[in-house]
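TL;DR need structure tokens for one chain.
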Amino acid sequence: QGDIYEYLLSELQSAGKNGQFRTPRHIIRMMVELANPELGDLILDPACGTAGFLVNTYEHILKENQKNGVSTLTPQKKKILDEESLYGYDIDRTMVRIAVMNLMMHGITNPQISGEDTLSKRYNEKGKYNVILANPPFKGSINESEKSDELTVSTSKTELLFLELMYNCLSIGGRCAVIVPDGVLFGNSNAHKSIRKLLLEKCRLDAVVSMPSGIFKPYAGVSTAVLFFTKGEPTEKVWFYDMEADGYSLDDKRNEIKENDIPDILESFKKRNNEDNEDRFKKHFFVSVEEIKSNEWDLSINKYRKEKEVEQNHRKSSDILHEMKKEVKELMKGIDELEGLK
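>> reply
TL;DR here they are.
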């Protein structure tokens, strides 16, 4: 039933009836794998939409607590997972209803979904959550008088405010996987820089996965990245990965293709500290926080990745001059012949 409901949601969204686009489910699954939520974690999506992150988190925890396809959860632990682990908020009442139904269709009888603007003064759950997974609205804005007093960054841009909100909501040691537009990575306003500084100095920014611009087609063509960070300790080095393919064509049709970096992202992330991640010509590598700081906290991969130079054999200038002289001589000879015809 849950799979059917998710399919119907995808059809509704592609027809544009709800005015919002869904995060591709394979990208959600990648982010859930990175964050690895566990039984007992309190998990939040502060802009949950259709609850795709919460559904996939629920399925991930169920899968991790199986043996030979049979659940190892006691009724009490299952009750904690169903009723006290997953929390979602959305400003759109229609999305709240869809999210509640989506979770119920996946077996959660009493979903913890609320209609609330988590950036507003009415919301405050500081330090409560162990895991946050989200794809918050891009290019949104909030009225300054409505903005929560807990948000100190001087901006009305929601993509920056949500990052500070997530930092505030995480407990010490809590982890967050979030999708951001590329502008967050290199924007040069004071607000952009202060958010990146926050993530690097007061969190351990574990990974920046740069994604190609076709990921959200046909709904939007914006380039995005996944940030994965852990609250409570400063960053020493950041692991970057340049995703070039996600298993689907990067045009409006998004047809399935063979090329897919996601399995390699997940495998390489797990092995990142035991592999050579110093080669800037590769798809993934480390960059020290000192180098990032010297570049005004810039987190765009193109700032650090090196492109392989293609060797070209250029002709000698003397050979080119000799050839030009030869062509000029032939041209003058042709002109003389034309004048002789007169």
